[in-house]
Design brief:
With 380 residues, this protein is an alpha+beta fold. It has two domains: 103 residues, NE0471 N-terminal domain-like (2-Layer Sandwich), CATH 3.30.2020; 256 residues, Double-stranded beta-helix. Helix content is 24%, strand content 29%. The strands form eight sheets. It has a six-stranded mixed β-sheet. Helix 7 crosses helix 8 and helix 8 packs across helix 9. The longest helix has 16 residues. The chain is globular, with a radius of gyration of 26 Å.
Length: 380
């Protein structure tokens, strides 16, 4: 039988658990194991994260307590340990109980860290039917995708708009201008170099959006043309190289604002943003690169000379053959890329045989969510 807070608080205190002692002062609570500091919890954190039913919406487990309802200098009146439970009495009579192992688990990343590509890296291939129907195979595919930023789904249908069938695994298609599912062929509406037989340099699509799509599925319906190999480039790895070898270039690429535009006779998307974006921890979050969508920069913009030196360095690395992975995408194969990390490209081709590709956009958050849901389902 589990104990409620009052029963735990009033029972005999045990110190046989992993958290052997606790102390607090006017600033925070500290727990120790074998004399070593294990956790340091600011009082506002402890009050804000109280997991009791009075502080949560029971049906949804959302927080109902709001921090402004207590003073900023709040301090417990008493703190105790019972096994691995931290028990807190507050001056207003409220009581909080934390399982400290749950608190420690907060430092474990929710998703696996991205993996580096080896010199001979090529994406993993997964069968279309398995991906849609076999939860365990889908988990393997999504784990590979989130780790490497790219997979290929093989033996897919070659009927147009089959990308709609991926929604149960990848989440809903993110609609953008210029068609829900894009047709890339020399016979279709030409508003981009992709619709020609010319080589297409490494890029991510819709750099012209303030928040470009974070995942892209490129579905080859038929490929009878000579040439036209697909190319992928790990832009995060290149950005990391620049940060290590040329930190001044990296700083410029993180700060200098660059205009991007995609348009046709009916639509226009336009965004101005740095090429590299990092999160609050300094981890690379996205690389926005599109030679064809990048617009002319005002030559009076401050720092433009330093930007072009850094941009030249970036372009040189992105187009370096050592950083490219090349393979042929056949009819019935889908290349899925994490578009904020992996740039995709295409060699030129001879348009004597039919070559028709469709692509659509998804969101990485939805894909990561699907992996968690499938893992939870498989663990039941």
């Amino acid at each position: 039988m589990s104990l409620n807070h009052e029963e735990i608080f009033n029972s005999q205190i045990k110190i046989s658990g992993s958290h052997s002692s606790v102390s607090f002062d006017s600033r925070c609570i500290r727990t120790y194991k074998d004399g070593e500091l294990l956790l340091e919890l600011p009082h506002l954190w402890s009050r804000d994260n109280c997991p009791c039913d009075d502080c949560r919406v029971v049906a949804t487990q959302e927080k109902s307590f709001i921090l402004s309802s207590v003073p900023s200098d709040i301090c417990p009146s008493e703190v105790k340990l019972h096994d691995d439970f931290l028990l807190i009495d507050w001056p207003d009579g409220h009581q909080s109980s934390f399982n400290l192992n749950d608190v420690l688990s907060l430092s474990v990343p929710r998703h696996s860290a991205p993996k580096s590509w080896g010199a001979d890296f090529l994406p993993d291939y997964f069968n279309w039917n398995d991906f849609l129907k076999d939860d365990s195979r889908t988990c393997l595919a999504l784990e590979s995708f989130l780790a490497n930023g790219v997979i290929v789904i093989d033996k897919a249908p070659v009927e147009p708009d089959s990308l709609e069938l991926l929604a149960p695994r990848l989440g809903p298609i993110r609609e953008v201008l210029f068609e829900r599912i894009h047709n890339v062929s020399v016979d279709t509406h030409v508003y981009n170099v992709a619709h020609t037989p010319m080589a297409l340099p490494p890029h991510n699509d819709f750099a012209s959006y303030s928040f470009p799509p974070s995942a892209q599925a490129l579905h080859m319906l038929v490929n009878e043309a000579e040439g036209g190999n697909s190319i992928i480039v790990d832009a995060w790895a290149i950005a990391s190289q620049i940060r290590e070898e040329m930190p001044s270039h990296f700083a410029v690429l993180c700060d200098f604002m660059v205009p991007f535009r995609e348009f046709d006779e009916c639509n226009e998307t336009y965004a101005v943003a740095p090429i590299i974006k990092c999160d609050a921890k300094g981890e690379i979050e996205s690389v926005r690169f599109s030679n064809q969508l990048m617009q002319m920069i005002d030559p009076n913009q401050k720092g433009i000379e330093q930007f072009y030196l850094a941009y030249h360095d970036l372009c040189t690395r992105i187009t370096d053959v050592q950083n490219k992975r090349s393979f042929r995408l056949e009819g019935g194969q889908i290349l899925l890329v994490a578009a904020h990390r992996v740039l995709h490209a295409r060699e030129s081709f001879v348009p004597q045989g039919k070559r028709h590709l469709q692509d659509a956009y998804f969101e990485l958050d939805n894909i990561a969510n699907k992996l968690i849901l499938l893992k939870n389902k498989l663990s039941l």
